[in-house]
Amino acid sequence: MSLHNLGRFPAYRPRRLRGSPALRRLVRETRLSVEQFVLPLFVRAGRKLRQPISSMPGVFQLSPDELVKEATKAFQAGVPAVLIFGIPDKKDEKASGAYAKNGIVQQAVRLLKSELPELLVITDVCLCEYMSHGHCGVVHRDDHGVCIENDASLKLLARAAVSHAEAGADLLAPSDMMDGRVRAIREALDGAGFTNTPIMSYAAKFASAFYGPFREAAESTPKFGDRRSYQMDPANAEEALREVALDLQEGADIVMVKPALAYLDIVRRVKDEFACPTAAYSVSGEYSMIKAAAAKGWLDEKAATLESLLSLRRAGADIIITYAAVDVAGWLREG
Ligand code: PBG
User: Fold this and answer.
1) Mind telling me the catalytic residues?
2) Count of other CB atoms within 10 angstroms of residue 78
3) Per CATH, which fold does 30-334 belong to?
């Protein structure tokens, strides 16, 4: 069979189009644009606090004043959105800090919206950072062991979501993976008058080794057990599609796949199947891998970062959540 008989593909000589840099750019299929980036930030109580996270060079736990500085830098670099994670002073078994009127995230959101009204403020809605045991839901202990109480967790998640909306959050991102949480949050928001506050659900969230550095950053490592009863098995793609379908039915406006690089097939299948706004979260471990290799001189940080994030665009992601957002904005400006 000759190349001419390939049907969809006519006789095609790519070399001609790869000739000059300008021509190469002209026929380029996908691009990275800073307008699609979301920068995750960690906030905790204090003043002038920039506590480095050892496993994530360049990422800090920030006090609210420093958070505003960091968000301003990102906004000025063209990054339109931040995703806020809170580290409370006190944790308990009801995750009270997650829905306290004056909780750390609620304070941070109010401050960001007053200082930078045009910055999109997204909040992570979860309980793990606020639970003394570090799980994403309410834990029930009995003679048979421990289990996560799905429906009791939904009530707390819904309260947290409404409190974030009251503080002024533009978009809510539930990351807990309890069943039915998108509907519970949607109903609670509507009931409280926040009918126009959208939801970006962590729809296909896998139980991943790549969250390791984040758990240092958010101080949310489970004290016992693991998250495999509520996060997905990395072996399952069909299940990911069902999770996404459910979240959309329950009212999610944007769906997310997480992690990103090891799950590019899921990003592509979600985009093809549902044709809805799709986010890919390039998680802490993906960031730290490149940072660590670059520090040793084994990888070119800029090239490796841009190539990884570009693969998310190729896979179909509309929104890219990355700790490298500000660096990438700078690199893209340099061209
Ligand atoms: C909370 C949450 C996690 C991440 C985002 N939200 C951690 C987890 O599920 O253990 C991970 C983000 C990252 O690794 O960058 N449920």
Assistant:
1) 205, 258
2) 16
3) TIM Barrel (3.20.20)
